[in-house]
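Example 482.
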Amino acid sequence: MKSELPILVVGGGIAGLSVALAAAPAPVRLLTRAINPRSTASLLAQGGIAVAVGPGDTPQAHADDTCIAGAFHNDRAMVELLTSQAREAVDWLHALGVPFDTDEAGRWRLGREGGHRCARIVHAGGDATGARVMDALVATARRATHIQRLTGVEVDGLVVRDGVVCGVCLIHPDGRREAMHGRAVVLATGGIGGLFAQTSNPPDADGSGLALAQAAGAALRDLEFVQFHPTALALPGQHSLPLLTEALRGAGARLCDAHGRPLMAGVHPLADLAPRDIVARRVWQAQREGGAWLDARHLGQDISVHFPTVFAACLAHGIDPRIRPIPVVPAAHFHMGGVQVDADGRTSRPGLYAVGEVACNGVHGANRLASNSLLEGVVFGRRLGALLRQLPVPDGGGGRHRIVRRPPALAPAGLMQLRMLMSHAMGPVRSEASLTAALETCAALAARGWQARLAQAMLAAALQRRSSLGAHYRCDTVPAPA
Ligand code: SIN
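Predicted structure in complex with succinic acid:
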């Protein structure tokens, strides 16, 4: 029946779940690669959610900090939408059962992270905010009768009729293929950290949704802006690294070199709490000069109480952060670029929507401000859900269907090669020579897998932007004027 045609949401992280819940009562089919509904990048988010509720703070000040961190490449209207809706988004999550941490007086405890000029971050379970938010959203979605979940499925194509995206092509866990029709298709597939040698993302945050949009000819934007988190736990040879949240530095932890000398002194007025791109580049440089460490010893036993995730990750790798500084490396963390969308998540392809990290509406500019990503997922996810709820259901008849498929994936050896290539050429410090060489190698790999085709587009965008801006730092050209 026409009214039963579902909204197809690809991806079950915070953005996808926010769309699905806000679309009620319209039927939603949530399509996830993972079998376990909690298994997403959102779950790993240790930073919290930025919201201007502290004394003297305002959404305007939050917007200003977002644009400063973003090197003013941000779309100010999107930023203001984000920061003005932050309180409502946090209240919504709270009402769904997210247990935000409170102080002795019962008020939300506000932390500080890089680029924020005041304490403005709410957390849940200390550094387990992503996990607590996912718990609440997954539980709510399970109870919601309008949402049907299909797990362990790979979406590798889109169904298009008369130029309008009207469905997806699925591969079920048993290898069976299916074309599934929907009233709208939403990509909420997360980021691209999986294309780099070291990332704070899970390995399957590999740009699959972005590549799907690329295959469908949707406009992509700002692909060169990749954020590196300065403090992932240094575990040589490992791909997916545990994060050491920036909130540790907000609580007084300091970056230092092998001799204990402070890394950020004299680099930026906010020192260890400078915007993330600046800290990541300093750590990247220190790496080449003997290594970088995060000294959190002053926290003593408190680290196990306020940062249980970090504490457990360190102990699991034989490092007691109460006793010695923690070795750190920069790791691919967040993609500011993505599928070009408007404020409502519309892509340039009718019927196709995108939200969260896979999308780019310009809110993060050239460098995302800490703790704005979960917020983005909730604010723009709910906005898109509300839009889709009201969308007239298209009638199913008419023109011919066409399938647009993402090319096959790289074999494991090719993917390893690509990750090394991307980390070398598209890391925190880039040059024309390394980008050009990587683009040539990538061209040869592109015929063998979609990840390389996507990487090609990212490398080309980085090559084209000749001056440094935010997270895109070219060591061979002059910085853009401030
Ligand atoms: C962190 O906790 O340092 C990461 C938070 C974020 O990416 O916003």
